[in-house]
Specification:
Blueprint: H1 5-17, H2 30-39, H3 59-67
């Protein structure tokens, strides 16, 4: 079965950059798309600079404190 071009583009964006882009308030949320990609064994091929960044010292504590 042939998949739509829009889905193919979304999967390729996820594979190449590890990103999920939600178009025009579509029905699936980013979390749902991540579940779809994972369920279809669609994994990223490379890591991006942002995914390898480490938080500054103390920022994790600050973030956790903001959660309440």
């Amino acid at each position: 079965m042939e998949i739509p071009d829009t889905l193919r583009q979304k999967m390729e964006l996820f594979r190449t950059h590890g990103r999920i882009h939600r178009y025009n308030n579509e029905l699936f949320t980013e979390v749902a798309w991540l579940q779809v990609m994972t369920g279809q064994n669609c994994t990223r091929r490379a890591t991006t600079r942002w995914s390898t960044c480490r938080p500054r010292q103390g920022s994790r504590t600050t973030w956790r404190a903001s959660l309440g």
